[in-house]
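Throughout our pipeline, every protein is held as a single compact record rather than as scattered files. Such a record has a labelled line for the sequence and another for the backbone structure tokens. The remainder of this section carries one protein's record, kept here as part of the documentation:
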Amino acid sequence: MPVPFSRRSVKVALRGRTILTTRAAGSTGDLTERLTELGAKVIECPTIELEPIENCTAIDQAIRRMNTYQWLMFTSANAVDYFMKRIAADQQVCRIPIAVVGSTTAKKLHDWKLSPSLIPDRFNAEGLLDAFPCDLQGVRILFPRAESAREILPEELRRRGAIVDVLPVYRTRKAVESIQDIRQIFRRETFDCVVFTSPSAIRYMAETLEDDMGIALSAIPIAVIGPVTARACEPFGLRASIEPRTATIPDLVEAIHRHFSSHS
């Protein structure tokens, strides 16, 4: 459990700090709002955009045979939204148990009047695997997700005997319009922290900055949502210095607070 912290102390710690966030366009609100409320100046530069899969035939077919699955699995709130919108459009109802990767995904599920049957203790793919039994022979799992994602979950579940149907419901792409200004943003602003919440956000920023990536970020504390994003920094010669105990936005904000409290 995260250690509670005083909003007053956070305001002192983040007052005068300028933080760059790189979350997907349309997904920055919660992070920006929390940091702003706590005294930080937040500059948003989305490096990725989300869009639904153009051809929804496979999604609609999977929805109509949902009762043949024993589990529905989500590892992102975005996947919940895109999939549930198709269910609503098809006038279907989800009645099978749902496994989610963590509290943020569970909260999004609640927005659709649904409750997860399984939430792991650790909010990542490895934690979700630990929550499932070793023997899954013949268990059918429907896994709506991004078009490109880590394969550890479906591969390990299949190794345990499960039948896993990976169902792309959305894709990520570089946010060309917003990210093209990143060089000017770094020339104009001095940042105390840069926040990444996905490996793709790091990759797209690196593609834009090219050789200047290391120069731009080498002296700036980097905050990441979790270990997978932290590891994504390494190929670019960067190291994340701020990482929450649990991969949620509230815990990420708390980790940023702790960092600046200890360096104030």
